[in-house]
Amino acid sequence: MSFTVAIDGPAAAGKGTLSKEVARHFGFAHLDTGLLYRATGLRTLDGTDPVEAAQALQAADLEDADALRTPEVAQAASRVAAVPEVRSALVNFQRAFATRAGGAVLDGRDIGTVICPGAQVKLYVTASDDVRAERRHKELTGKGMDVTYDAVLDDLQQRDARDSARATAPLKPAEDAVLLDTSRMSIQEAVAAAIALIEAAQG
């Protein structure tokens, strides 16, 4: 029996952490779909064509999380995500994951709107720009990266603008998604809210 939870939202809103905790609580499989685009983006930094990079993507390409989390790769991911042929190359992988037996949680930008419009639960996780920039800055400097808060804020706003304006699968809440603003919530509060929604949907 498959049960799909779609969690969308902009960068650093907390959807990744939320998704992992929700998946762990229910024993569901978890896919951070942003890693697919980051891995594709990373391949393009050496000159590889974005569509070729997406078509050749393998599970092993997702394993080096630190290499995929740099600001340079984040920008490359946002650029390749705007290419319709890249998105279509990665759609089948995501949909197959979403319908696996035992339940699945997918987080990204277009899960509830494009990848899994029939998901039993759809959440759109967001937070204010300054809160998201603060979280991401803390995360990156904690890994030893030399970045300023202003640079992180600018990077997030550029990605938001690009992701929201693209013609194919723009970043936006599904019409039936539940909005979860984590600006003033602890991760524990956000997870509890998500769990309650999923339990209600499970009946």
Task: Describe the model.
The structure is a single chain. The protein has a five-stranded parallel sheet, with helices on both faces. Helix 1 packs across helix 10. The longest helix has 17 residues, at 149-165. The radius of gyration is 16 Å and the shape is globular. The relative contact order is 0.22. The chain has one domain: P-loop containing nucleotide triphosphate hydrolases (Rossmann fold, 3-Layer(aba) Sandwich). With 203 residues, it is an alpha/beta fold. The protein contains ten helices and five strands, in the order E-H-E-H-H-H-H-H-E-H-E-H-H-E-H. Helix content is 55%, strand content 12%.
Summed up:
By secondary structure, the protein is α/β, with parallel strands linked by helices.
Keywords:
55% helix, single chain, 203 residues, 10 helices, alpha/beta, Rossmann fold
Q: Considering the protein shown, what is the CATH homologous superfamily?
A: P-loop containing nucleotide triphosphate hydrolases
Radius of gyration: 16 Å
- The helix content is 40-55%
Supply the CATH class: Alpha Beta
Low-confidence stretches: none
Major sheet characteristics: 5 strands, parallel
Helix tally? 10
Can you give the mean pLDDT? 93
Terminal CA distance reads 15 Å
Ordered list of secondary-structure elements with their pairings:
Blueprint: E1 4-8, H1 15-26, E2 29-32, H2 34-44, H3 50-55, H4 65-68, H5 71-81, H6 84-98, E3 104-108, H7 111-115, E4 121-126, H8 129-142, H9 149-165, E5 178-181, H10 187-202
Parallel strand pairs: 1-3, 1-4, 2-3, 4-5
Helix pairs in contact: 1-10, 2-5, 5-9, 8-9
